[in-house]
Structures are given as structure tokens and as C-alpha cells.
Design brief:
The complex is a heterodimer of chains A (198) and B (564). Chain A has 198 residues and is an all-alpha fold. Chain A has one domain: Four Helix Bundle (Hemerythrin (Met), subunit A) (Up-down Bundle). Chain A is built from six helices and no strands. With 564 residues, chain B is mainly α. Chain B is built from 17 helices and no strands. In chain B, helix 2 packs antiparallel against helix 15. Chain B starts with 23 loop residues before the first helix and ends with a helix. Chain B has a single domain, classed as Cytochrome C Oxidase, Chain A, CATH 1.20.210.10. Classes of the chains: A mainly alpha (198), B mainly alpha (564). At the A-B interface, helix 1 and helix 5 of A face helix 5, helix 6, helix 7 and helix 16 of B.
Chain lengths: 198, 564
């Protein structure tokens, strides 16, 4: 066994590993997808198994407008990302602000829908199996929208305070991934609750 | 062997260590606010060891109760709480925390990084997990509700509906169970994400994925599996909490809900969870067996592929826990076949370990002893697993002690044995001192003998028809002698674990000084001081092969000549 420390040949070529924030957000999205899968499976399994009314056919209306709002917010956040990467900060703040507005419209629409369901149709989470699965699935998604809006608003505060720059583009892209995920989940929830389940 | 160790140039700090000053309070404060992966790893492992003793004490109490027919050591109520808490503790507070403790401590060192990808998330995850455990145990005091006395959960670790409904489980015991596991589940997911980001993004220069040490590879697979395993449980427990607090009907059969849905959701978590726990055991064996056989691991790519394969297959086998609830024959066939499929990648692993040992220059130090026993015991556990996967056999033996014996063969015979191996292997790195080999051999042999007395015999009690979860039995069933034998083996294991605990403490003060590389090993964690400085490596290492320290020690015959 040689006692002379050998110097290994230097690594040739550039050494790059993926950005850790993106990897972590990808992991979080996988985990969240599993949670949503369980709730969606429960929803589908319990379609039509309620022993009492009201049923989805009687009370649910397809929320076309707020769905369009939420899905277009994916587009606006993409524009915000692009603006930040090119260091166009006012454009960034504007697109970010419109993303938040679209998200708030979605939440407001959900609030109105729930208010009508509770006070007009008398459907609460404990009324029947439909109520239990509906409020927990839609509510789980709305919770994610709220968390996303909180984080986006924080970024907006920093942007308006002039603390954001293109050096944050990679980090903001991580947050945008989360927001895209929330939108994609809504496509699934929308399909299951308002199309298959109604 | 320490004199053989040649550090990679510049990787060890030659400056003398600064003597740590400060009061006890400052020392405590440092440990509480730490974000260092090594300290958090040690905290995880101490926490797991503490609950291993607690869960072990519960097991001993259970075995004393069952040692004699019509015994009155524990009442029926206390017995139910103890077996529930034993299972929950061992899986969530011991198994998971050991996994992530070892992952935390070893992975950054092994991949040549300074810390985990997200040190503060790491600290958050640990403390959340820790408080989850305390919340669970607080139920002994605070779970009273209607009874006005302490009441831990008593519904079994799988907490089948509708037993968990308010009508059948008044008080707050179930709420503590659900909330504690939701909370510690968040911690687990946080650490899993952290491990994934660390392994993928923090590797040092030259460490491609096919040069990654197998321990880190397997923990990467485990963390990925954790993400899709713990989360269904969290979802199901949120549903349970909705049922109990908001009057929901998910598992309320009176309102159209289904108890079987809970079983599906629980085992969608519950079966992959076994692989979340056993893959780290494989990971430890993957490090220990080559080093103590003085050979490189046999079939590295096959080992990686088999681990990924096990993770995928394990997601499609859950309903083999449910053959007796009456599924369609199509479902039965599917789950029989998918369960048997697990045997293929697992078999590949066992053959690879044997091929690694084959022709090697074996050193039977304590870590290797534990890993050798693991190989035999895991084989037997796998074989009884295949027996139980056969649906008609399962109908006969389900919920009998045969099942208990089978899964304890995996959980103790494979996982706990490998965790002990990991302790003996990495303790010198973490503390700078060797664990006593003499005490280690006593620990190994007593634990081995106790293990086989308990769990070999338990198979027979099961075949004779003793069901699980009963607090006592009539003397005329023919189970008396066997149960006494099972219980006496439990006492021997308890003595062995106490010797182990004594060894941990004694060796910390009096153990032989280890040096940087006491086992003449090959991965990067042995290329820094023991214990490593907070920044791990002075210069970030550069690697050219799977065994960077072998290349260092044998410049005339480096590994990279063979790998590429």
C-alpha cells in the first residue's frame, strides 16, 4: 500500500447539478399529488352513494368563469417569470399583480358558491356523503390556492419595494411551478366534481 | 488500520480544533438551534433510540401478559393501548426517525457536501417530527375525554374504521393518534424532499449518479417512495379528523360511507411503508458487506435497478393485507401476483450480497455479524412473505401470530439488525471512538438467540391458531408452552438491548480512539476527521470512481480503470 498521496486526475468538463429549489418543489408536487389522488379517489368512489339529498345534480353549477380566471393566471405568471428573467421589473409587478387578482377572483367565486350551497341549498360538510367529499376536495384545493396567493403576495410586496431583480428569477420559477400545479389540480377537480360527478 | 488512511489532499483540516467553551446552557442552546446535518442526525437517532426503548418496554409488557394463560399483568384496556402504541411508536417514531437520522448524518458526508440542501427545513422537520411523537405520548395523560383518566389510542396501529368513529372511540385518544401522525408526517415529507434535493443537487464534483454510493442511492429511492407513501396516510387521517370533528361521513357506514375505503387508504400507505423502512436496512448492508468482505459491491447497476424496482412494485401490492375482507377473484389474483413479483428484485439483491461476500476476505467485526444474520433472516422473512401472499394460505393464517412473526422477522430480523450494524459501523465517525467489540459481540449473540427463540416459535403459535390482538387466552388451547418460550426470548432481547445502550454510553467515554478511517473503508465520509468538523471538508472533494478512498489508497490500481 503506497504511502504517497496521489492526486487524482482533475474532473474534466463542467460540473452542473440541477437547481435544488426546483428539485425540492418537484418532490413537493409529487407528494401533494398523492394527497389529491386519495381525495379524488374517495370522491369518485362515493359518487351517488349518498343516502340523502341534496345531490350534485340538484345544487352544483359549473363554475366556468372562475375556472377561466384560474387557468389564465397560469399564463400571467408565465409572463411574470419571463419579465423577471429579462429584468423588466415593472412588467413583472404588473403580471404578478394580475396573477394575484385572478387567484382572488377564483377564491371569491368559490366563496359565493359555498355561501349559496350552505344557505340556499342547506348543504354542509355533515349533511350527506356528497357534502363531506365535495367540501373536503374543493376545500383542499382552495387551501392550496390560499397558500399560493400568500406566497405570491409576499413576492409582490418585495417587488413593489424594489427588492426583486433578475437574480431571483430562478427562485421565482420555483414558486411558479407550485402555482402551475395548483392550476393543473383544478383541472382534475373540475372534471371530477363538475363533469363526472354531476 | 487507521494508519492506512490517506486523506484526499486538502480534505482534512490540520488546524487544531478549538476547545469548546461555554456553559451548559449555551451548549444546550447550540443543540436546539442547530441546523447542522450531523447534529440533527444525532438528534434524530437519539430520539429514535429513546422511543426504541419505550416501544421495547411496551413489547416486554405485552409478552409478560401473554406468557401465561389467563394472566392479569395488564388489563384488557391497557393491553389494547400497549399494542397500539407499540406498533405506532415502532413504525413512526423509531423506524422513520432512524431512517432519516442515518440519512441526515451520512448522505452529505458521503456525497462530499457541506450540508443538506435546506438546513433550516431540516431543523424544522426534525422538531416537527419530535413534537409529533410527544403529542402521541401525551395522549396517555390528555386523551381522557369522557373517562377523565389517561387513555392512549387502543384501536391497533391500523386503526380500522368504524372503530375510530366517535360512537365507538369517545374521548380524544384517536384525535391524538391522527394529529400526532399528521404532524410528524409533515416532518417526514420535509426531510424526504430535503434528502432528494441533497442527493440530486449537492453532489461533489465528479460524483455522477452511477458513482453515487449505494447508501445514498437507496435513501434517494426511499425518500421518493416516502413522498407517495406518507401522504396518502395524511390524507386519510385528515378524512378521519373531518369525520370526528366536522361530522363528515367518509368512513361512516350509517350514511353510505365505507370502512373498506379506510383499509385501502391505510394499506396504500402501510405496505410501501414497509419498504420505506427496509430499503435503508439494505442501504446499510450495501455499505457494510463490501467493506468487511474487502471487495467492491457486486452488481452495482443491478442493485440500483432492483431498489428502484422494489419501490415501484411495492406501490401495487397493498391489498394483500386485505384478502380476508372478500375481494373479487380478479383482485385477489392481481395482488397475489404483484406481491410475488417483489421476490424478484429482492432475490437479485440477496444474490448480489452473497456474490460480494463470495471469495472475499471476510472480517467478522460486529457490523458484519449483524449484516450476516440479516441476510439469513431476511431470506426467511421473504419466504414466509411469499407463503402469506398466496390468498388461500392467507385466509387460513390472516390475523394470526404467523403474520405477526412474519412481519417482525422483517422489522426486527432485517431492519433492527441492520440499524445495529449501522450503529457499530458509523458510531466511530460520529463520536471519534469505537464501540466496544466485546460488548458488541455479547449484544449480537444474545440478541440473535433471543430473536430466534421469540420469532421462530411465534410462527408455530400462529399455525396453531392463536389470533393477534387478544389480551389473554384459555389454558386448554395448547399454546401455553410456546407462548412462554416466545416471552422468554423477549426478555433475552431486552437484556441484549440494555447491553447495547450501556455500550453506547460507556464507549463514548472509554472507547478506543477511532481515527479517521477505522474500518479501512472507501466512501467519502471516512475522508474527514471523526467527528467531522461542522463544514465536513476543508476543500470540496473530487471523485473519479465509486470508491474514492480506494483510488487514494491504491493509486497503482484505481477503480476508475474498471468502471468506465
Amino acid at each position: 500500500m503506497s504511502a504517497i498521496p496521489a492526486i487524482p486526475p482533475a474532473y474534466e468538463g463542467e460540473w452542473r447539478t440541477p437547481y435544488r429549489g426546483k428539485v425540492a418543489m418537484f418532490g413537493l408536487i409529487i407528494g401533494e399529488s398523492a394527497i389529491f389522488t386519495i381525495f379524488v379517489v374517495a370522491y369518485i368512489f362515493y359518487i351517488g352513494k349518498s343516502l340523502s339529498g341534496p345531490t350534485p345534480q340538484q345544487v352544483l353549477e359549473v363554475p366556468i368563469f372562475i375556472t377561466i380566471c384560474l387557468l389564465s393566471s397560469s399564463f400571467t405568471i408565465m409572463l411574470a417569470e419571463r419579465a423577471l428573467a429579462r429584468n423588466r421589473l415593472s412588467g413583472f409587478a404588473a403580471w404578478l399583480g394580475s396573477t394575484i387578482c385572478l387567484g382572488l377572483i377564483f377564491l371569491g367565486g368559490t366563496a359565493i358558491e359555498w355561501h349559496e350551497l350552505i344557505f340556499r341549498d342547506g348543504l354542509t360538510i355533515s349533511t350527506n356523503l356528497f357534502g363531506t367529499t365535495y367540501y373536503s376536495l374543493v376545500g383542499l384545493h382552495a387551501t392550496h390556492v390560499i397558500i399560493g396567493l400568500a406566497m405570491l403576495s409576499l413576492v409582490l410586496v418585495f417587488a413593489l419595494a424594489g427588492r426583486m431583480g433578475e437574480q431571483h428569477a430562478e427562485r421565482f420559477a420555483v414558486l411558479a411551478m407550485y402555482w402551475h400545479f395548483v392550476d393543473v389540480v383544478w383541472v382534475v377537480v373540475f372534471t371530477v366534481v363538475y363533469i363526472i360527478g354531476r | 488500520m487507521a494508519e492506512n488512511s490517506i486523506p484526499l489532499p486538502g480534505s482534512i483540516d490540520l488546524a487544531p480544533a478549538r476547545e469548546s467553551g461555554g456553559t451548559l446552557l449555551e451548549w444546550l442552546h447550540e443543540w436546539i438551534v442547530t441546523v447542522d446535518h450531523k447534529r440533527l442526525g444525532i438528534l434524530y437517532i437519539l430520539y429514535a433510540t429513546f422511543f426504541l426503548l419505550v416501544g421495547g418496554a411496551e413489547a416486554v409488557a405485552i409478552r409478560i401478559q401473554l406468557a401465561f394463560p389467563l394472566n392479569h399483568f395488564l388489563s384488557a384496556q391497557v393491553y389494547n393501548r400497549f399494542f397500539t402504541m407499540h406498533g405506532t411508536t415502532m413504525v413512526f417514531l423509531v423506524g422513520m426517525t432512524f431512517v432519516f437520522g442515518f440519512a441526515n448524518y451520512i448522505i452529505p458526508l458521503q456525497i462530499g457536501a457541506r450540508d443538506m440542501a435546506f438546513p433550516r427545513l431540516n431543523a424544522f422537520s426534525f422538531w416537527v417530527t419530535a413534537f409529533g411523537g410527544l403529542l402521541l405520548y401525551y395522549s396517555f395523560l390528555g386523551g381522557g375525554g369522557l373517562y377523565g383518566v389517561g387513555n392512549a389510542p387502543d384501536v391497533g396501529w391500523f386503526a380500522y374504521a368504524p372503530l375510530t368513529a366517535r360512537a365507538f372511540s369517545p374521548g380524544h385518544a384517536i384525535d391524538y393518534w391522527a394529529l400526532a401522525l399528521i404532524v410528524s408526517g409533515f416532518g417526514t415529507v420535509g426531510t424526504a424532499i430535503n434528502v432528494i434535493a441533497t442527493v440530486i443537487s449537492m453532489r461533489c464534483k465528479g460524483m455522477t449518479m452511477m458513482r453515487l454510493p449505494l447508501f445514498s442511492w437507496l435513501l434517494l429511492v426511499v425518500s421518493g417512495l416516502t413522498l407517495v407513501t406518507i401522504t396518502p396516510l395524511t390524507a386519510a387521517q385528515v378524512m378521519l379528523v373531518i369525520d370526528r370533528y366536522l361530522g363528515g361521513h367518509f368512513f361512516d357506514t350509517q350514511a353510505g360511507g365505507s370502512a373498506v375505503v379506510w383499509m385501502h387508504f391505510f394499506w396504500i400507505f402501510g405496505h410501501p411503508e414497509v419498504y420505506v423502512l427496509v430499503l435503508p436496512a439494505f442501504a446499510i448492508a450495501n455499505e457494510v458487506i463490501p467493506v468487511f468482505s474487502r471487495k467492491a459491491i457486486f452488481g452495482y447497476p443491478a442493485m440500483v435497478a432492483a431498489s428502484v424496482g422494489i419501490a415501484f412494485v411495492s406501490l401495487s401490492v397493498w391489498a394483500h393485507h386485505m384478502f380476508t375482507i372478500g375481494m373479487t377473484s380478479f383482485s385477489n389474483t392481481f395482488f397475489v401476483l404483484s406481491t410475488m413479483l417483489v421476490g424478484i428484485p429482492t432475490g437479485i439483491k440477496i444474490f448480489n450480497w452473497l456474490a460480494t461476500i463470495w471469495g472475499g476476505k471476510i472480517r467478522f467485526a460486529t457490523p458484519m455479524l449483524f449484516c450476516t444474520a440479516f441476510l439469513f433472516q431476511f431470506l426467511i422473512a421473504g419466504l414466509t412473505g411469499i407463503m402469506l401472499a398466496v390468498a388461500p394460505w392467507n385466509w387460513q393464517l390472516h390475523n394470526s401470530y404467523f403474520v405477526i412473526a412474519h412481519f417482525h422477522y422483517v422489522l426486527v430480523g432485517a431492519i433492527v439488525f441492520c440499524i445495529f450494524a449501522g450503529f457499530y459501523y458509523w458510531y466511530p465517525k460520529a463520536t471519534g471512538r469505537m464501540l466496544s467489540e466485546t460488548l458488541g459481540k455479547w449484544h449480537f449473540w444474545l440478541f440473535l438467540i433471543g430473536f430466534h427463540i421469540t420469532f421462530d416459535t411465534m410462527h408455530f403459535v400462529g399455525i396453531l391458531g392463536m389470533p393477534r390482538s387478544i389480551y389473554t387466552y384459555e389454558p386448554d388451547r395448547g399454546w401455553n408452552t410456546l407462548n412462554f418460550v416466545v416471552s422468554s426470548g423477549g426478555i433475552i432481547q431486552a437484556i441484549a438491548v440494555l447491553i447495547f445502550g450501556f455500550n453506547l454510553v460507556w464507549s463514548y467515554f472509554h472507547g478506543r480512539v477511532a481515527g479517521n478511517d477505522p474500518w479501512d473503508a472507501w466512501t467519502l465520509e471516512w475522508n474527514t476527521t471523526s467527528p467531522p468538523p461542522p463544514y465536513n471538508f476543508v476543500q470540496e472533494p473530487v471523485v473519479r470512481s465509486r470508491r474514492p478512498l480506494w483510488d487514494e489508497k491504491h493509486p497503482e490500481d484505481p477503480d476508475w480503470g474498471y468502471e468506465e
